[in-house]
């Protein structure tokens, strides 16, 4: 099956890991058809674009659901630790991570590959840049001190 690239900011990281913005229920089924066994949601359930009961939709498809509600204005080290724990728990099993537009996720995945996997290369930065260029608290979260005073810059449009 082909990747469901119609999902906002869909990205295939590798054979195991995919990321995106908020999928709808049909798109969750397409993600399951790829063999994904775990869905991680970093967005808040209260967001207007969030599914009414994502946990039920995901578990009905036979996937595990992990919710790590990351406040967009205040990502924390505890959030990142939970994220790393979920990725470790999933092991080699296919995993999909999403938020609303894939901004939170690209920051978390970039930091994960850099700090946990020791893979600080240009591909991770390019993937991040293809969605957005974080400023403020997100630049600080990523250790990008030069951009802390800058606004977020989104690739193509302001979400």
TrEMBL record:
Pfam families, sorted: PTP-NADK
Coiled coil stretches, renumbered: none
SUPFAM superfamilies: (Phosphotyrosine protein) phosphatases II
Highest taxon, organism lineage: Bacteria
Annotated ranges, domain DSP-PTPase phosphatase fused to NAD+ Kinase: 14-126
Protein name as it appears in the record: Protein tyrosine phosphatase family protein
Species name: Sphingomonas immobilis
Lineage: Bacteria, Pseudomonadati, Pseudomonadota, Alphaproteobacteria, Sphingomonadales
